[in-house]
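Ligand: adenosine-5-diphosphoribose. Inputs:
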Amino acid sequence: MKTKTSIIGAGNVGASLAQLIAYSGLSDVVLFDIVKGIPQGKALDISEACPLWNSSVSVKGTNNYEDTAGSDIVVITAGLPRKPGMSRDDLLQANAEIVRKATEEACRVSPESILIIVTNPMDVMTYLAWKVSGFPPERVMGMGGVLDSARFRTFVAWEFGVSVEDVEALVLGGHGDQMVPMPRFTTVKGVPITELLTGEKIDSLIQRTKNGGAEIVSYLKTGSAYYAPAASVFEMLKSIILDEKRMLPCAAYLSGQYGINDIYAGVPVVLGRKGVEKIVELKLEDSEKKKLEESASAVRNLVEKLGL
Ligand code: APR
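Predicted complex:
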């Protein structure tokens, strides 16, 4: 039986994701937006590309939540993107209202779905969606770590002059200014970059990774990144739909893991058909642990601002 994926928010991230799914033939797609015409137009355009891609999935655009009913996976990208000079946290109140409504409506008609949250500030929006949905935590997760790790991989590969395929990277913590890139767990063909690059060089790559989203916003001026965010959600979706059990850094609900309680933060998880099937606890050094705790408490501050 075909999988049904609904994407709430047919903007840059949502439409790019719909395109990736349709191109790969991974799942049927419903693209939802509050703006009339946009999801229908984009879905029709993608549908007309499907014959060229030899893809027989269905792609439907809608302004009606009923069309998303019975989804296996719901991806929430609805919200406002950043403008130059804005942090992800500046989006808090406006996007909280949008995500709350999207979660209520989407979960009402797809009560067995797995939720993936993309809207920023992502970790906080994921916590909000988890609360509003009433779903078990393994069925609600956020996309951030895969993107931040992909950015770190890119910069390490460029610096070292190797293929990005030979670089693995790990970024933990919140998907915000206090994210925690982990050089000890970032490798070129299995060799940690701490063995290959100077501390100063690593620090500059970490800084560029942390600033990765803002760097793109400063070029685009009218919006934020979407190709790599969409590709990151796609990697998560694929692991879930195909039950690949990939180990990927995602925002997961922590209930004591890493000494952190009742918050969503980026940690390595195993993703399969049931959602977050395992949270992988790495042995961290004290300094790493401290950075992760600081990052989680930045998320907690925003959660408290929303009164959750
Ligand atoms: N319900 C459904 N869709 C909505 C709602 C709502 N209540 N409010 C806004 N939208 C839609 C907009 O109409 C728009 O089509 O969400 C879409 C957002 O698309 P873009 O503005 O292109 O933003 P995008 O780049 O896709 O980013 C979306 O992901 O990466 C994050 O920070 C980013 O929070 C932002 C989100």
